[in-house]
Design goal:
182 residues; alpha+beta
């Protein structure tokens, strides 16, 4: 009987030891997996803080100066209270506003996605229009001096996949965005 008890005890200890080793392997795998996950968390945290900093940057970009420049009244056919803001939002999608100041000149930089109606006189084909809807980047620069819009300095550039399609300057550029509002 003692032999049997000793055999069972040794067998039990061996089984427990093997089970313990097996559990140690599981635990080490979990620890290693968690460490890789936590190492990836730094990237996630960096991404989140990057998003937050971009949001703060965007909020600062829309300062009182930008609002006052966006609210400058302009003359568009049959519109008495048309502002730069109303015009741009009517002719572009996904509008982003930036502001620069150089000496006495303030520059309102507007980026957006092409919307049908802009540059109608270029007679884009349906295929070209589809490409412009997807990747038609429009960059507009409006120049102000003493809060007055200087239409003769306006620039408008339409690109598609980094290919310049339209590049207008001066009154012609301003008239092209004015004419797009209908």
């Amino acid at each position: 009987m003692k032999f049997f008890q000793a055999f069972v005890l040794v067998k039990y200890r061996k089984h427990t030891w093997k089970g313990c080793l097996f559990n140690m392997k599981k635990i080490s795998f979990v620890v290693i997996a968690c460490s890789f996950f936590l190492a990836g968390c730094n990237d996630i945290i960096d991404a989140i803080s990057g998003i937050n900093s971009k949001a703060n940057e965007a909020a600062k970009a829309i300062s009182e100066d930008v609002h006052s420049l966006r609210n400058v009244k302009i003359h568009v056919e049959d519109q008495e209270n048309m502002t730069v803001n109303n015009l741009i939002k009517a002719i572009l999608r996904d509008v982003q506003w930036k502001h620069e100041k150089k000496d006495e000149t303030e520059i309102l930089i507007i980026n957006g996605i092409w919307k049908e109606g802009l540059f109608e006189d270029y007679n884009f084909t349906p295929i070209e229009k589809e490409k412009l809807r997807e990747n038609g980047d429009v960059n507009i620069k409006l120049f102000y001096k003493n809060k007055q819009l200087q239409t003769d300095l306006t620039t408008v550039i339409l690109t598609n996949n980094n290919n310049v399609i339209v590049d207008l300057q001066g009154k012609e550029a301003f008239n092209s965005i004015q004419n797009a509002y209908k």
